[in-house]
Amino acid sequence: MSNSPIDPVKLDKLGEVAIKVGLQLAEGQDLIITAPMTSAPLVRRITEHAYKAGAGVVTTIYSDEEATLSRFRHARDASFDRAAGWLYQGMAEAYRNNAARLAISGDNPMMLANEDPDKVSRANRANSAAYRPALELITGFDINWNIVSYPTPNWAKLVFPNDPEDVAIAKLADAIFKASRVDRDDPIAEWKQHNANLKARWTWLNGKKFASLKYKGPGTDLSVGLADGHRWKGGASEAKNGVTCNPNIPTEEVFTTPHRLRVEGTVSATKPLSHNGTLIENIQARFEDGRMVELKASKGQEVFNKVLDTDEGARRLGEVALVPHSSPISASGILFYNTLYDENASCHIAMGQCYADCFEDGKTLTQDQIFAQGGNKSLIHIDWMIGSDQVDIDGVHADGSSEPVKRKGEWAFSV
Amino acid sequence: MSNSPIDPVKLDKLGEVAIKVGLQLAEGQDLIITAPMTSAPLVRRITEHAYKAGAGVVTTIYSDEEATLSRFRHARDASFDRAAGWLYQGMAEAYRNNAARLAISGDNPMMLANEDPDKVSRANRANSAAYRPALELITGFDINWNIVSYPTPNWAKLVFPNDPEDVAIAKLADAIFKASRVDRDDPIAEWKQHNANLKARWTWLNGKKFASLKYKGPGTDLSVGLADGHRWKGGASEAKNGVTCNPNIPTEEVFTTPHRLRVEGTVSATKPLSHNGTLIENIQARFEDGRMVELKASKGQEVFNKVLDTDEGARRLGEVALVPHSSPISASGILFYNTLYDENASCHIAMGQCYADCFEDGKTLTQDQIFAQGGNKSLIHIDWMIGSDQVDIDGVHADGSSEPVKRKGEWAFSV
């Protein structure tokens, strides 16, 4: 550990921010961490900060790239329709008993790039179905949760392919520390200020009650209707268990729920999408009545199409998010091949499941009410990037009048 | 990995033996592995052999010594009465759905040696209670299961304290490979022969239907009554799911269920007992009516006493096992500080829970019937070693007549 290329002081600060800003872990709460094995140094810092904050029991479920690949290379065909349902059911039970949840993102984004797309898709689908009860408790904000990243070797080598491994890891670590605001003297104060800035943006947007957003840019002419009674959010968020958490570290977005039947037009991705080990590049799509009716991609089209065949809701939108083009992650100029980062470099939309919490009274609405107001449901939730400094966005009122929300990728209103 | 002191060919054979001999994993069975993080190289070999054998989904739950210690050093007092019940409940559910179970033993035996005994005891008790439903499915042989070992650095350094780490790991690896019979050309054939030898021993013992065993040696004058309808077992064992497995790799013992009310006299341990990170040395105990009424130990007495306070059954016996003093593990002369090894170097007894399977018709007996026949019940099951080349054992019939079972630690009958 002593000769790791990762700054141990900043790593410890990242662990502290994950617990004190990300989760705001409450006294006595149990904690479930999911993490790649190669992120163990961060898991250990998080575990210590969790116990210092009064955690009950911290349990880490590690994934291992080699074990995952072993399955794709050696398992019988029938394996790919199975999942560890017992584990996900257990997690859901823990969340129902108020355990908090922390995910460390850092898996090799290209892990499954050379595996059979059919097996990848079936394994993902089986996993999504088994995970759904637990995921609904997370996306529904029953409990406080957080995702934070760690610069694993295989991820670092993908992002910085021309550097030796140690240099690549150090560079990715620095980018993560900067984006996560732990390179500052007082990261916790920085996050307080950042949350206030995001809140000013979504407060303005909520006041406008736009009926739709209109996107114009190269290859993009898209209208995204917003769900009835939608609510914009961003940064800190109060979960139903009364704890205010910051689900994503880093985060630069404000976001809400689109109407699953009211999306029309064409849209072009502005960055590649890395999904479960496959890179999907140069996506171009056309929507009619909310449904994606055409899809092209220069790479990974087959995998993306299979994912979008998961269920009826998979070709409809579940999230729309606004990010300034000048955000620190965008300004870094790095393509991270990791949604947590790349989505925060650009305005984006997500296919699939919507967030129940992005509605007025979202905490008390039933699934049926959410659906009736235009919320989408699906086993998947996949963000892809459609913003750049060449994309303008207008907010359109119910009477057809409109006003600028973004110009050349930047906020077009002051708060 | 390339400069590991552990022979990769033998490690792979150990993984193969764990799946093909230890578990005899059936086509389509899911598999749950529990393992220290530092044993990942063996987990990966096992995972590959499992998928090659037709495993459904293999899920590994890793433990991490640093995270465990972090809890003891930083958690609030209330943490030590909690456990990850959700995880154990999930495992039990998986076993009810016929998942197989493989544990890798290799944790640092002294991990908790310097922690507060009260916290250690409370944490163990909370864990045992939460784990009980899953453990009963294992000890009741509802499913095929196996324990196998890996030479982790901290364990190796404890066993070979005067060697550099790499040398210690290589030595412990060799000892594990030899005891697990993977240093031979055809380990699977070796295990078939070994199972046949063990079967000949327990077949003879079952034919005798002894009422009790009488132990005589230095500091030992003990009578251990056997449960009514007890059955001797050893080596391969058929689980209720129809799969024949070898639960322990290595194993040298034949064993059965003592009567929890019929143990009388004094007994001295012949090796130290390593229990959940505490070493308990020079145990001397006296039993009356099956209950341990006196306990002395030169080291670890407080921890052992606390464990034995777990419940009513913790001071009574749940297992009695016979091992030849000349067994390969005993012949190695190594003190492993690990029950899986040390128990197979010596005759031993276990405090606590009995094995339901060590009865005639054990597969169909209810818990109440087992109890009525003298079987013990407890949250704990802790083996300790009472055999040596100075201990003789007689089998005593119901009419008081007796015949030699062991002399100077060796089998005293031919088969």
TrEMBL record, chains A, B:
Cofactor: Co(2+); Zn(2+); Mg(2+)
Database matches in SUPFAM superfamilies: Thermophilic metalloprotease-like (SSF144052)
Keywords annotated in UniProt: Aminopeptidase, Hydrolase, Metal-binding, Metalloprotease, Protease
InterPro entries: M29_Exopeptidase, M29_N-terminal, Peptidase_M29
Domain of life where this protein originates: Bacteria
GO molecular function: aminopeptidase activity; metal ion binding; metallopeptidase activity
One GO term (biological process): proteolysis
Protein family (similarity comment): Belongs to the peptidase M29 family.
PANTHER family: AMINOPEPTIDASE, AMINOPEPTIDASE AMPS
Protein name: Aminopeptidase
